[in-house]
Every structure is written in structure tokens, then in C-alpha cells.
Amino acid sequence: MLRRHxxxxxxISLLLWGGFANVALAxxxxxxPYVRNDALRPGSEYTQEIIIVRSDPTEDLNAELTLxxxxxxxxxxxxxxxxxxxxxxxxxxxxxxxxRVPDDAKLGDYRGNIRIRTSSPQLPxxxxxxxxxxxxxxLLSVKEEIYDFQVRRVELFEAEEGYKxxxxxxxxxxxxxxxxxxxxxxxAGPDHITLEIFDAxxxxxxxxxANTNKVEQILPFATKRVFAYLPTRLPPGSYRVKYDIGxxxxxxxxxxxxxxxxxxxxxxxxxxxYGFDGLSMGDKLSIVLPPTLLAGLFLLFLxxxxxxxxxxxxxxxxEDDRNDDEYPPPVNPPLxxxxxxxxxxxxxxx
Length: 350
Known about the structure:
By secondary structure, the protein is mainly beta. It has 2 domains: 25-142, Immunoglobulin-like, CATH 2.60.40; 149-282, Sandwich (Immunoglobulin-like), CATH 2.60.40.10. It is 15% helix and 41% strand. It contains 2 helices and 21 strands. A 5-stranded mixed β-sheet has the order 2-9-8-4-6, with no helix packed on it. Strands 11-19-18-15-16 form a 5-stranded mixed β-sheet, with no helix packed on it. Strand 20 (337-338) and strand 21 form a beta hairpin. It starts with a helix and ends in a 5-residue tail after the last strand.
């Protein structure tokens, strides 16, 4: 009888412990429960944010990570370290898991998991406190270079009408914002942006423009807003715009339609006008060609002047530079001889 009594008490205790454990598990979780990327390449880096959630953060909890990552454990780093604290009063705690693939990593799939275990600082690490835990599944694939991105959102800002200065025609500047998520493993971004502008009813095409700037490239696995700038020479008014975001020269990432408002000049505070980049090719040439032609003519004048032959002048030699063979020394005449009598004989000459 006594033995049966203890067995009943033990069974009831296990049921109660299991019930409390389920309650604890229900109040603890992580999102997302995985680190997953199927577009990694050798040398790339990827960061996944994991949010640890508690429904009733009434006390501090110690958290410890245990890794089961065969062959790839050295690829992983954690911004909070392997042991950290879940503070009292914070229902959500963020943890960044960073994966750095070595340059010599082999192509293929890699699997594993990361376990998070918690315990109370005031209690031993046994019992119900160990029931608070979760597992992060790791699913990675290392592949060759992949160029790809997704357009998550677009926005078209108000523009001002263009203006003239001297003989130059400066257009209005359309600012087109694009939220890009790089889903490949190399830097990527739009190859080109095209806007076809219609009247307010969207029936008559008025103008087709392309971006004048080079759109920024997004790093792998990142999401960022980038901007494209396009010229317009339309007057103030309301218009419909059909846009085309090119992934490559021949492939479109997204097409759609938006509304555009062009306002009178000076209406938008802090509006950034177009400079030289917005001018037409004819206006650009009218600025560049005149000084270029003048510089070319000046260089041609210098070149022709150097090739003109110079007049030869006679060379005057100094006395010291004369050649003895060319100018022989003069012959001295013989002196008259005297005879013994003292009479000079002038009849004998050499």
C-alpha cells in the first residue's frame, strides 16, 4: 500500500511539473526560429536578427548558447556572446547572428542548429527553469555568384518645372525612390530607370525620360532605399507616369504606374535643381566646344610656329678659332747683308 501511495504521488508530481513546463514554454519563444540563406558565396557575409520573446519578464534570466554546427562553427559570431542576460522588464531581446563564409569554403549545403537555454540567477540550473529554451535551425547553401534583387516599394516625389539661364535650358528634376532588397550574393541594383509621362487621364504620352545618375548598388542580403533622378521639361500640372525598373539591360525587375505633380519654380522648399547633368546634349556641347576649339587652335599655332625654318646667319670666328692651315703665317723678308767693308749689299736677295 505504501509503495502504491508513493507511486501515485510521483505520478501526480510529474504531471504537475509537465504542466508548469508547458506554461513556461508557452511564454518563451524566438522569431524567426532559423538562420537561413541559400545564396551565400565564398567570402560573403550575412547577418540574421533573432528576437527572443518573453510574455512575463518578471526577473532576469541567464541565457546560454549551445552550437551544433558541424564544420561551420567558426563561421558564426553573436553580438551578445555565448552567454548573456535577458533583463527583467524587457519582453523582447534582439540578438544578431553573423555568418562569415571563408574565401576557401566549398560549395554545397550546410545544416545544424543553435540552442538557447535559460536559467534563473537565483535558482540552480536544474528543474523547471531549464524548460525555458528554444532551438534555431541553421540552413545554409554556398553557391557561385548570384546577381538578383527585389523591388519592395517605390515612391515618386513632387518636382518643379525647368527654367532657362542664358541660352541653356535646365529641366525639372524628378526624384524617384526605390526600396531594394538584394537577394543575391554580390552587389546589385537597378541597371536603368525609365519613366513615360502621360497626361492626367493617362491617354497621351508626353515625354519619356531615363535616369541621369548611376543608381547605388546594394550589398548582398541588405535592404536599402536608393534614388534615381530624371529630367522633365513639362509645364506645371498633374500627370500619370509608367515606370520601368531594369534589372539588367534586357530584363525588367518591376513595372508600374504612379501619379506625378510638377509645380511652379520656387514652390518646393529645399528643392535640388539640375545642374550640368540635366542639360541636353546640344546645350552641353555649346558649353564644352568653344573653349575646346580655342585650345586646339592655340596648340596648332604653337606647333606650326615651331616647324617654321629659321634664316641662317654667317658665323664669325674669333682670332683664337682660326685654323693655321687656312691662314698661314706671313713670310718675313731677309735682312740685307753687310760685307767686311761695312757696305750693305742690297743686290742679293733670297
